[in-house]
Predict the structure.
Amino acid sequence: MDLKGKTVLVTGSSRGIGEAIALAFAQQGANIVLNARKPVSEEMTNKLTALGVEVETILGDVSEFDTAKMIVDKTKELFGSIDVLVNNAGINRDKLIMRMTEEDFDATYQVNLKGSFNMIRHALPLMLKQRVGSIINISSVVGETGNVGQANYAASKAGVIGLSKSVAREAAARGVTCNTITPGFIETDMTDALSDKIQEQMMSQIPLKRFGKTEDIADAAVFLSKSDYITGQTIRVNGGMYM
């Protein structure tokens, strides 16, 4: 897919990986729809519009089915289509399972997995009608490996992988692809706040001996969107942490 002039909707795009993904697509000439629950900074929107593309922000919680529909409907109203959907919105409520509450589990599931379903459910009919489109779901390395204190997060992210494969099979006949990216440890505000000892422990698990950058995930998303013959795949961007 040639991305110039296409419409790319990125959920959870106010900062971090989502912001990097939006910027990478804008650099390819795509118009960008940013989605978040809280207002996106003017600095970010200015950075995108400086690239000569159209940028719109639609606030809303993707974990709510009707809100997801509103986000898709408004995007169609503004741009006429959705060519690429990147489901990046996510939260974590990390606790050992013996201390995890029902609310901890449900809240994580609602955003990470159901939020992806909600957006796909409403965007996919547009893509099927267009007979072209790319859906990219951001999962996590722990969705494949599991992790202490992240049973809810790992379960939700593993679910995203299964969701992606099923959507890929259903949508393939109409030329729509669906893939998953599973980031490893990525340099974000969250990793910056960790102690040196914890960062060293995390680094010891990575053969390439460095954390990934948000741009590494963004580059993978752009790559997948441009391919019309890669679907149902899980692309691991983790420095060799899980092979």
In short: The longest strand covers residues 176-183. The first helix runs from residue 16 to 27.
